[in-house]
Amino acid sequence: MKVLVNIFALAVLGFPALTLAAPPKCDGELPSPGNGNGTSSEAKFVIDAAKSQLGSSIEGAATDKTGNFYTANFGNDTDKNTIAMLNVDGTLSLAYKDNNNETWFNSIRTMKSGTADGDFVMFAGDVTGHRVVKIEGLASGNPTASDFCKDSKMLQPNDMALSSDGNLYLSGMNYTETSEVGNGDLWWCKADGKAAPLDKLHRANGIEVSSDNKYLYLSEAVNVGGAVTENRIMRYEIDAETGVKLENKAAKKTVFVDFKKLDQTEATDIDGMRCDKDGNLFVTRNGLGAITVFSPDGSLKSNITVPGMKSVKNLEFSGADGKVLHIVGNCDKAEGEDEATPAKGCIATWTHEAEGLEWSQL
Ligand SMILES: *[C@@H]1O[C@H](CO)[C@@H](O)[C@H](O)[C@H]1NC(C)=O
Ligand SMILES: *[C@@H]1O[C@H](CO)[C@@H](O)[C@H](O)[C@H]1NC(C)=O
Ligand SMILES: *[C@@H]1O[C@H](CO)[C@@H](O)[C@H](O)[C@H]1NC(C)=O
Ligand SMILES: *[C@@H]1O[C@H](CO)[C@@H](O)[C@H](O)[C@H]1NC(C)=O
Ligand SMILES: *[C@@H]1O[C@H](CO)[C@@H](O)[C@H](O)[C@H]1NC(C)=O
């Protein structure tokens, strides 16, 4: 999401107990990130500025099993209380509009529900309402919504991750010129809807659960005097009792990726983060027009560029086979275009060889 400068969001999902061949070590040192040389490839627009009916607050990304893709802010910039659907046939439409016009959806997740094929519920994070809304009946075109989880002490939520057993993890930030611990937060919405704070840190944004439900990834950025000086991905161990594992009563975490060490792009914010079903982590770099892909051991796999969309915000796999990575963000302005005109919300895609985690669990 964009508040003052660039505030972004991310979310994820959790999954079944497929153990990875070589699980990352959970204590002590993680393998250092790889030294580059992954493959690089380009994403292409499916909704460009000319076709866009999406506002500049486009954010959040989710799929259903049919391969329809969802993102927030259908319409113009005042319509932050809406969820758009990009039908698998390529058409855009309004999927849901909240009754409260102050609602600001910035993150979305979907989860299998019911017994019929394709039945699902959507969780949508509302920044201004400090709540998660549960939306049912989307597949039948007759959506109904209820508050699932709410706490006015949450900073936002900015983005969300969902484990396959229905636990939600929420990130938030308070953008300040110089950040301190507490300008970012991590919350847990238990499967029964109860909210609990888990950690405080510098600005928190992208968030995802590993494909085996074991780890929680959360991005953290540091500001000093208006400049962004750090961007890293922290990793927590999920714990059924306490949300994340604790050490001396504080959330225990390790550095999974540090962009200062990796490629000196620490001044560019991490935004959305999502896993494929094998646990590879896809990370948007909002401002660089790129998605950086990491293996479950933290090594760099590849870099996907998104020409025409420097402000890449969030992403999720969708499409009929669940392998099409949909990337949402703002289309770059045309040369000479009025500064005051809001940028359009756009969608680009890139095809993977594996299904996304969310799609595979629906
Ligand atoms: C990366 O690619 C360059 C150019 O092809 C090569 O010189 C270098 O050895 C490669 N590094 C690794 C770690 O594979
Ligand atoms: C934005 O859309 C709303 C309806 O959703 C409409 O009332 C409003 O006039 C529109 N604003 C602009 C600037 O087009
Ligand atoms: C919501 O609607 C009220 C009443 O029409 C209006 O005063 C307010 O400005 C609107 N808020 C937003 C965020 O559009
Ligand atoms: C955000 O940070 C500013 C500056 O430190 C502080 O004054 C404000 O109370 C903070 N807001 C929240 C909601 O924590
Ligand atoms: C990924 O691509 C972006 C845009 O070209 C570039 O700025 C960044 O350094 C690349 N990162 C890696 C790890 O190659």
UniProtKB/TrEMBL annotation:
Keywords: Hydrolase, Signal. Residues 148-327 form the SMP-30/Gluconolactonase/LRE-like region domain. It comes from Dispira parvispora. The lineage of its organism: Eukaryota, Fungi, Fungi incertae sedis, Zoopagomycota, Kickxellomycotina. It comes from the Eukaryota. Residues 1-21 form the signal peptide. GO terms for molecular function: hydrolase activity. This is SMP-30/Gluconolactonase/LRE-like region domain-containing protein.
